[in-house]
Each structure stands twice: as structure tokens, then as C-alpha cells.
Design goal:
The chain is α/β, with parallel strands linked by helices and about 325 residues long. It has 11 helices and 11 strands. It folds into 2 domains: about 150 residues, Response regulator (Rossmann fold, 3-Layer(aba) Sandwich), CATH 3.40.50.2300; about 160 residues, Alpha-Beta Plaits (2-Layer Sandwich), CATH 3.30.70.270. It is about 50% helix and about 15% strand. A hairpin with a 2-residue loop joins strand 8 and strand 9. It starts with a strand and ends with a helix.
């Protein structure tokens, strides 16, 4: 039997001003009555259950601040009930005070082994009960506060890490995140002896676009281009970052040159689909130039060689009239030697 708080006439609405809630699990109706009256006199809210199974159901419904459980009960005794409650994550688990007429060492050891935080013997010494209830609830509330503070600190650290690694305008990775990830992937590709590809690209005639349409329109253009580039990658290790100004860079781990070229073609299609008008461009719309390179990193080489090679390919694409891509793997191979 489980008597809910509503049946007891006690509100279940969460409030920081509400008294702590204690769940009594005992098959003896008289003991439950005595405990309830005493605890209510001490300004606690009370819920009741008549055996371990009902106690588990009550816990799921009301989430008390403390559980008083009898050791010896039918259906499911206090030891088994404690054992089940010990499966609850520690940060959410309320303390358990076992009430027992068993005082032998074996029973006490068994109670603590099952997950009880403390015990009190029958007949109940009310002054002792009062102190132990108060102490256990204080400890539980302190634990909850510490858990909350830890979660808040963790969330704040994650937010700081996000801000430190994200470009504020385009909401993609920034230069700092790019440098960090390129170094990590370079070392990983060196160990695994597999290729790493890099794409460097920038928006054609972007200065003219800013001069014609204004810097606010330029910011919107950068955001749209960044999103289109980001949609063209789908693997966990791939990264699109803002390299600086209107320039973007793409890391493609475990990707050979042919795969990088396919990614660039997808990016070109994505930019074309944006159809951003740019009257200062010969194409009358926003286009990008791309430089592509690929290498199998070696312990003797540096990731900067990949950037240098991609930058040379990008320069070549611009020299060829823009809105195209060029490939440069010879520079990487030469620098690796």
C-alpha cells in the first residue's frame, strides 16, 4: 500500500520554500502513524508505503529527500528495497535511514552493504531520530547543491570552449580551432599513414561586393557561404573553418585527392544554389575560388606544408579567372622530402 501525497492532503508542487519530504516504508500501520505524526510535528512533509515494492513506486513518484525503511517487511524487505534504490545514480539518490529491531553485527553490516546510510533501532528513540533525520537531509541537500554547481560550471566551461573555438559571425570553427584540429589530424594521419586533404577557398570579388552592397550585406553573405560550405561535409572528422576575412579552409582527414575534389564540386553547387547577386562579378553572382591539396603526413613534415600547398593552388585558381579550383600536390611532396 502506498499513500500518495495527494491522498495525505500535501502539495506535490515543487518549491524551494516547501519543507523536506520524507518517505516512510513500513508494514506496521501503527509505526507509520507514529512516524508521520512526529515528522509532521517537526515540519516535514510525509509520504507512506507499506512494503518495499510500494516504497519503490512511491520513490519514483515523489522523489523524497529521505527514506525511512523498515528492515523486516513482507513482499520486499528493507534490505532488498535498499539494494534496488542503490541502482539510482548517486547524485539523485536520497539517503536511506533503516529502522530495525535487529541489532546484531551481521544485520547492521547487511544494512550498510545494501545501501543504507544509517540505521536506528526499535523502539525508536525520538531525539536520536530527529538528529539523524536532520543530518541526513542536510547532507543530501548539500550534495544536490554541489551537483548543481558542478553542472553549472561544466555548462559554463563548455560555453567558453564553444566561444573560444567558434567564429562569432559565421558560427563555424574559427582559426584557433582550425589550427588545433589540423595539428591533431596531422599527427593521427602520420601514425596511421593515411592521406589528409586540405581545401583553401575565398569569395571572389568580395571587396567589390562590400563596396557595392555595404558591410552588413557582406556579413550576411559570409554567413550564407559558411553555411553552404558546412553543409557539404558530413563526417565527424571533417571541419570547415573561417580562415580570415572572406577566406575559408576545410580539413578532410582520411581523404584522398579525388574525394577532396568531389567535396569541392558539392561546395560549388551549394554556392551556386544560393544565387547571391553580385553585379561587381563577371558572373553576376557570388562565386568562390578553391585550392586543393593532399598528402600522407610523415614525422619529418609539418602541417604548415599543407597550408602552403593549398594557398599556392588557390592563387593559381584566381590567376586562371576565379570561380574554379586548382590542385597542388607537388609542393607537398617536395616539402615532405
Amino acid at each position: 500500500m502506498y499513500q500518495s501525497l495527494e491522498q495525505s492532503g500535501i502539495s506535490t508542487t515543487p518549491s524551494s520554500e516547501q519543507p523536506s519530504l520524507i518517505l516512510i516504508v513500513d508494514d506496521d500501520a501503527l509505526i507509520r502513524l507514529q512516524l508521520r505524526l512526529y515528522l509532521q510535528k517537526e515540519q516535514y512533509r510525509v509520504a507512506e508505503a507499506s512494503d518495499g515494492l510500494a516504497g519503490l513506486a512511491a520513490y519514483e513518484e515523489v522523489h523524497p529527500d529521505l527514506i525511512l525503511v523498515d528492515a523486516v517487511m513482507p513482499t520486499m524487505d528493507g534490505f532488498a528495497c535498499c539494494q534496488k534504490l542503490s541502482e539510482v545514480p548517486e547524485s539523485d539518490r536520497p539517503p536511506i535511514l533503516m529502522i530495525t529491531s535487529l541489532e546484531d553485527k551481521e544485520s547492521v553490516d547487511r544494512a550498510f552493504a545494501a545501501g543504507a546510510d544509517d540505521y536506528i533501532t526499535k523502539p525508536i528513540h525520538w531525539a536520536v531520530l530527529r538528529q539523524r533525520v536532520r543530518r541526513l537531509i542536510q547532507q543530501f541537500h548539500l550534495q544536490q547543491q554541489q551537483t548543481l554547481l558542478y553542472k553549472q560550471l561544466e555548462a559554463a566551461n563548455q560555453q567558453l570552449q564553444y566561444l573560444a573555438s567558434t567564429d562569432s559571425l559565421t558560427q563555424i570553427a574559427n582559426r584557433r580551432q582550425f589550427d588545433q584540429q589540423l595539428g591533431q589530424e596531422w599527427r593521427r594521419m602520420t601514425r596511421e599513414r593515411i592521406p589528409l586533404s586540405l581545401i583553401l577557398c575565398d569569395i571572389d570579388f568580395f571587396k567589390n561586393y562590400n563596396d557595392t552592397y555595404g558591410h552588413q550585406a557582406g556579413d550576411v553573405c559570409l554567413q550564407q557561404v559558411a553555411a553552404a560550405l558546412n553543409r557539404s561535409i558530413n563526417r565527424a572528422g571533417d571541419l570547415v573553418a573561417r580562415y580570415g576575412g572572406e577566406e575559408f579552409v576545410v580539413i578532410l582527414p582520411n581523404t584522398e585527392l579525388e574525394g577532396a575534389v568531389q567535396i569541392v564540386k558539392q561546395m560549388q553547387a551549394g554556392i551556386q544554389a544560393l544565387a547571391i547577386v553580385n553585379k561587381s562579378s563577371p558572373n553576376n553572382c557570388i562565386t568562390l575560388s578553391f585550392g586543393i591539396t593532399s598528402a600522407v603526413p610523415t614525422p619529418e613534415s609539418l602541417p604548415e606544408t599543407l597550408i602552403t600547398a593549398a594557398d599556392a593552388a588557390l592563387y593559381q585558381a584566381k590567376a586562371q579567372g576565379r570561380n574554379t579550383f586548382c590542385i597542388n600536390i607537388h609542393t607537398v611532396n617536395e616539402l615532405n622530402r
